[in-house]
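Q: what sequence does this backbone want?
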């Protein structure tokens, strides 16, 4: 298990996230504990590529066994701050699956065209 820092202060995360302090939440000990519980529950395997979960929009093009490193909120915490630490609102995903679900994959792997320059000898 990961060596965790001690809890310094107890926050009401529903109020803090409503204020816009999501970075503070994702760097907190409470998030570390919830994240570890979800990864252990799902046995560190990506639920998206196993075919056990999809968001209704994105579906995996092939099923494969992949290690999960990320935890994703099914209902975003900006919409429902009260579900920020609810383990039933979280799912284990690999980095690639998380990028697909968050629609960031299409921007990440765009190949840039090389510019053709005139050779001068």
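A:
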């Amino acid at each position: 298990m990961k060596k965790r820092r001690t809890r310094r202060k107890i926050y009401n995360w529903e109020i803090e996230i409503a204020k816009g302090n999501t970075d503070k939440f994702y760097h907190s000990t409470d998030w570390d504990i919830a994240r570890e519980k979800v990864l252990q529950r799902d046995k560190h395997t990506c639920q998206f590529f196993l075919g056990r979960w999809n968001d209704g929009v994105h579906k995996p093009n092939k099923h494969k066994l992949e290690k999960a490193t990320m935890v994703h909120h099914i209902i975003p915490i900006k919409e429902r701050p009260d579900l920020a630490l609810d383990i039933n609102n979280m799912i284990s995903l690999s980095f690639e699956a998380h990028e697909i679900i968050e629609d960031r994959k299409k921007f990440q792997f765009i190949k840039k065209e090389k510019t053709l320059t005139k050779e001068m000898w």
